[in-house]
Structures are given as C-alpha cells and as structure tokens.
C-alpha cells in the first residue's frame, strides 16, 4: 500500500501524478501508470476542489491510497465531504466538469462510498498486463 496526504496545495495534481508514477514504477506496473496517473490527478483535483469545501467543519486532509495485487491496482482518494461525486454529461465547451468522465474512460471501473463517521472515498480500478512483485 502507498499513501500520500494533500492539503490545499497549488501543485497537488502534479504531485499526485509524480507520486503515482513513482509508486507504479517501484511496483513494476508501468503499463497502467499513464492511465492511473491521469485518474488520480482528476480524483485529487476533485477532492481538493469539492471535498474540502466544508473543511472548517471537518478538518481532514485529502488522502491518496494505492493498493495492488498481482495484476490489479486500486487508487482511492478520500476527503471529508459526504457529498456524492456527480458524473456529468460532458460539456465540450466548458473548461471544467469532465473529471469523472476522464476517470471512467481510463479505468476498468470506478465508484465511491461514504466513510464513517464522515467523508467519502472515490476510487478507480486498473488491471495490469504483466505486473510482478519486487
């Protein structure tokens, strides 16, 4: 398992991408690194933008957690908000609002769940071609 915490950082998306690709290189899962890094970037951005909206009420950080098995990867981002993520119809003119469309497009599956006592986890799953343990 790999974990990274984010607070309101201006370079969080870049940090998330670099962290993800570094972990996946260590885990010999480079074949899913581009897609996973893109999904993680979108999930972290959404969590910081929407999940920390009520941070004064629930002062919890955004966390990126990555789990792996032999060929599977699960990337999960937690935040203190209980608001459900909304998969919108793509608006190709808008500058924002397509993050979950991107996640759905690059991952084998994605979803979310509420956490107790507060918060939620939004996740994306990937299958690697020939990942191995080191």
From TrEMBL:
GO terms for molecular function: ATP binding; protein serine/threonine kinase activity. SUPFAM superfamilies: ATPase domain of HSP90 chaperone/DNA topoisomerase II/histidine kinase (SSF55874). The lineage of its organism: Bacteria, Bacillati, Actinomycetota, Actinomycetes, Streptosporangiales. This is ATP-binding protein. Pfam families: HATPase_c_2 (PF13581). Keywords: ATP-binding, Kinase, Nucleotide-binding, Serine/threonine-protein kinase, Transferase. Residues 13-124 form the Histidine kinase/HSP90-like ATPase domain. InterPro entries: Anti-sigma-factor_SerPK, HATPase_C_sf, HATPase_dom. It comes from the Bacteria.
